[in-house]
Amino acid sequence: MKKIILINGSPRKNGNTAELLKSAAKGAQDAGAEVELVNLYALNFKGCTSCFYCKLKSKEHGICAMKDDLSPVLEKIKSADAVIFGTPIYFMNFSAGMIACIERLFFSNYIYSNEISTVFPKKLPSAFFYTMNMTANHWEQFGMERLTGMYETFTERILGVKPKTLYAFDTVQFKDYSKYESSIFDPEHKIAYRKENWATQLDDAYNIGKDLMRNS
Length: 216
Ligand SMILES: Cc1cc2nc3c(=O)[nH]c(=O)nc-3n(C[C@H](O)[C@H](O)[C@H](O)COP(=O)(O)O)c2cc1C
Hints:
Strand content: 15-25%
CATH class: Alpha Beta
Oligomer: single chain
Number of domains: 1
Distance between the termini: 12 Å
CATH architecture: 3-Layer(aba) Sandwich
CATH topology: Rossmann fold
Helix content: 40-55%
Low-confidence stretches: none
Structural class: alpha/beta
Bound molecules: flavin mononucleotide
Mean pLDDT: 97
Shape: globular
Largest sheet: 6 strands, mixed
Radius of gyration: 18 Å
CATH superfamily: Flavodoxin domain
């Protein structure tokens, strides 16, 4: 049976990112796959500590020497048939948890060699889901493509396949905006935008999950 791992880089287990990942999981399941959703913020782990164990000539490359809650996740990604990384945008970047996870996964499988740059054992299809307050116009205005493009390029280099992408703009952050200082947002607009777009986004996520499993 094929397997897909879905990595939730939001601390919210039922937030926007999680919802999209769960929809992708359903798509993958409908394509006959086994699914596993990992909530990074439920785990105790750190980003790369630059120990260089993974670069030692005397050791097997592709192994992260750090031992913590992320270690089994890194192994599971290696044996999976596809992976989806879902991250909220925090201060114009990925969440700290997602960055830490990617550092560990990518750096341990990347080598400073003139001949090859990846020791990842196979070509692994993947996708990135991005959720954020920003609108599509802000995304362009702030040149976000430069940031995500770099992560996507590294993904292609390490995992061997160009990742698919899904963008969820203008997400609803609070159930009740009146309870929070949030005057920069127009809650009515937020609700209306979600009403108009969220079902399509869930469908897009579902289809990515399904396609990744069909084509892996
Ligand atoms: C610490 C923090 C920083 C954030 N920074 C940004 C940002 O720079 N740009 C943006 O568009 N949204 C930002 N947001 C909003 C989230 O990206 C957005 O609400 C996202 O959809 C949350 O995903 P979740 O529901 O899965 O937790 C930030 C939220 C938090 C908590």
